[in-house]
Specification:
39% of the residues lie in helices and 24% in strands. It has 9 helices and 10 strands. The strands form 2 sheets. The chain has a 6-stranded mixed β-sheet, with helices on both faces. A 4-stranded antiparallel β-sheet has the order 2-1-4-5, with helices on one face. The two termini are 34 Å apart.
Amino acid sequence: MRARGLEKRWGDVVALAGVDLDVHQGEIVTVIGPSGSGKSTLLRCLNGLEVPDAGSVHLDGQELRAGRRDIDALRARIGMVFQAFHLFPHLTVHQNLTLAPQQVRNAPAATARDDATALLTRVGLADKANAFPRELSGGQQQRVAIARALAMQPDVLLFDEPTSALDPETVGEVLAVMRDIASRGMTMVVVTHEMQFARDVSTRTVFMDAGKVVEEGAAKALFQTPSSERLRDFLARLHRDV
């Protein structure tokens, strides 16, 4: 995945100011930065939920451009996990996982059911297949949301602060699932406030501020020896707040 020159404004507010980003196959790229720095807007532009005012996003050389005839098929290759889960409340957990593969990928019903069962086992929720989202904890709902994204067999999986809406006791179970996904070679872009996850799991970390990429590099090196004063201040403030 490649983004070049992404710009996005909301009236007088500049959300993105010329952002470039490369994500190579098998990489885990974490995006960190203060609130309002443009991290979530960047993700939404990467998967086509937002149309940038300028710049481009390409997946395997194909531009994610509004109006192209195969835009839905291209977007289906980019999975998304949101802060607020966005599960279908009227469907069971199992149905949440099988709906899109059947309707978007034209997967046979039996294949979709078997894949859903395997994914629920993988995220530790095989016993919740017939439950409805309202019957699950926040952490369980987010694990279902991750399994649902994986059910589409995406080329890249985007996470928009997937633990920010969770009780502290359930954050660990979601991060454990994400670590498992990373260990299996999935290409991932993760907007997160979980600095230990970013430091330990990332291939590369990107630090954003005021709609720009201020610094990026190998995760451990970036956290240990940040080169920009802005990142040093950001990390120092986090350390004081712990």
